[in-house]
Every structure is written in C-alpha cells, then in structure tokens.
Amino acid sequence: MKKISIPNFLGIGLLGLDMADDAVRVVELGRRRGTVACRHCGTAVLPQGMMLEGNVEDKTGLAAAIRQACLNSGSGCTRVALAMPATALITHAIRLPAGLPDEQLEILVELEAAQYMPFALEDARLDFFVLGPAPALQNRLDKEAGEIDVLLVAARRASVQCRLDVVKAAGLQAVIMDSEALARQAALMQGGWQAMPAGQAYQVAWGLALHRFAR
Question: Contact, 154 vs 113, CB < 8 A?
C-alpha cells in the first residue's frame, strides 16, 4: 500500500474518515489552549450490506453517506485521511541492513515483499516504516554491521483504489492512507476521543485526524 504523496498540511484542515460496516464517521481536530480537541464530528448510518467486513459493496451509496456525514459534522474540510481495515492488509516484519539510502531501502522492501504476497506484486500497493534498530546478535562477527527491523504493509491495489474512488465521488480529496489498527493506536495514546459522546466509535476517525498534527 504505497502511501499517497502528502504536501505539508500542518495548520490546514483535515478530516479523519472512518468507513465502518455500520456507519461513516468523520472527525476534524483543532488545538484549544494547547490541547488537541474535536472541532467537528459527524456520522451517517449505513444500510446493511453497503459495507461488508471492510469491503465496499455499494460505491455510490457509500459516497452519498460520506457527503451526509460531512454535512452533519458542519466541517468545510475537503481533505481527508482514511484507512484500510486489517482484513484487507498483509503485514510482515522484515530485517534489512541499516544505513541504506531511501531509494535502496525501497528496492529491498519490494524484493522482500514479493516473497510474502499471495498475489502479483504489480497488483499490490506497498508501504513500510522502520521500527528501529534490530537487536544485535551476541555471536555476530562483524560488530559494525547493523540491521533495522522494518514493517511491510501491503494491500490489493484494487481495494485501495476503490476507497479512493468513493472519496473522490463524495467530492473530497484523499491525502493520506493509514491502517485502522495504527489509527486506533494513535487515538488511544492521545486520549481526547474519550470526551466525545459515543467516543469509542470515533477512535479510528480521531486517530486519522491526528495526521494534521504530524502524528
């Protein structure tokens, strides 16, 4: 799942958009007295079957629901951060040499990814991020040779594109794609969603909206 190119949008409005099976939820965050807080939020309930286990079954209906959620929120933002569900993602931790230029690191990630994909690499969208230095092996002969642990994330290109198409049909611009698990983790660490009515339902959208602040 190759991350969409993102210009610097610090200070520019951003909607976190969660497309769950039961509803669409949007959150816009802002700083209030130095604390990140909810500026706008809204939801639109989805008919059964429009989304099924994270898969889009009705693109036209879902786009209309997203527009309604945005209208209900009162936000004028058109830039959104959205997520892929865990069921649509393949993740794998890999170990690579440390100190490589970004270009070489990307090449090695693609080579490694080919070993784990249950479908052709050209049908995948890839993303990765460095977890940190790998633990040194006690019996390593070359003490100066370091390695890093890297998390590889991949999704079917068609699945990613489907969500982007729905967002575009709703009149919005997708500027970042994350995973639901990472968005929820970011929300739990920040904690502000707890002050919202039915706050737990907004966790993913909240975590996505945090990207405005260089999460």
Answer: yes
